[in-house]
Design a protein that fits this description.
2% helix, five-stranded antiparallel β-sheet, 51% strand, four-stranded antiparallel β-sheet, mainly beta, single chain
């Protein structure tokens, strides 16, 4: 797992004065996609870490990324500040890149979360939308999630900041993080709040396939929760602590995450909470 993340050319970004704002690893770990603060979309081919397509520039500001689980044709979704959803399909044999776009909403898209069965969840402004892909390869909105009730739990003016589908037998549950308020576990079939995890200041939420999820608090520190029984969650006490986390990245094995922090990409095993490896941007360094 960790060997695929060596020698990525992050130094080229630092020299150009641009910074990574969001990044995402493809399901089989073949590509790493990133958006930059300057409005670019970048794609690296792994494990060699070379840029496999020209840097994409557009008049619209990309704001979020999500890979679709299609190993034959790697497909990347990119949401923008104007509510557009761009689809990028990479054909390895021909080396071509196909790009198409669709206007999903009139609100800035902040986060995407895709599941094969449940569809595409998106945060757009104050709202949480769920979309389904039609036979014509167009996304249609099938749900608009209301804010949690009672309203005293999460005030109506508070914007959701992160979302992730819960990876367990429940096929329609969505974790929604609210900055400075908490994490709500939604049942998207019944449109009810299943559970509220209070007291967390959420900057990001990621789920693994082993009933764990990670978040970033207001101090930009990592917090990892593990399921105990039913829907009771507890913090993982063994989890590593990092200062000033800029991004969380899923790792293709499904049991780990990569944490971007102060010039390093830290690879963490969510099952144990232990640090597996640290990769310095542009250089390689094993974890101690």
């Amino acid at each position: 797992m960790s060997s695929r993340l060596r020698y990525l050319p992050f130094l080229s970004l630092a020299k150009s004065g641009d910074f990574i704002s969001t990044c995402s690893l493809s399901p089989l770990g073949l590509f790493l996609a990133a958006t930059t603060a300057g409005g670019s979309i970048m794609l690296w081919k792994l494990p060699e870490g070379r840029e496999c397509y020209p840097r994409l520039e557009s008049g619209d500001m990309p704001s979020c990324l999500q890979w679709l689980p299609s190993p034959e044709i790697p497909t990347l979704l990119c949401g923008t500040e104007t509510g557009m959803l761009h689809t990028l399909k990479m054909k390895a044999q021909s080396g071509t890149l196909t790009i198409s776009g669709q206007a999903l909403c009139q609100l800035p898209m902040k986060t995407l979360a895709y599941d094969t069965v449940r569809g595409l969840a998106a945060i757009a402004g104050h709202e949480v939308h769920v979309y389904s892909l039609t036979g014509r390869h167009q996304w249609i909105r099938i749900q608009l999630l209301p804010l949690p009730t009672p309203i005293s739990i999460i005030e109506s003016h508070v914007e959701p900041t992160s979302i992730a589908w819960l990876c367990q037998e429940a096929e329609s549950q969505l974790l929604v993080g609210y900055q400075n308020h908490g994490i709500v576990l939604w049942d998207t079939t019944q449109l009810t709040t299943v559970r509220l995890i209070k007291g967390q200041s959420i900057g990001g939420v990621l789920c693994s396939h082993i009933q764990q999820f990670a978040s970033v608090n207001s101090l930009q520190n990592l917090e990892v929760y593990s399921i105990v029984s039913g829907l009771q969650w507890r913090p993982l006490e063994t989890c590593q602590s990092f200062d000033h986390i800029e991004a969380l990245v899923t790792v293709h094995s499904g049991n780990g995450i990569a944490v971007q922090s102060q010039g390093f990409l830290h690879i963490i095993d969510l099952k144990t909470g232990y640090l597996l490896q640290s990769v310095k941007f542009g250089h390689h360094q094993e974890a101690r």
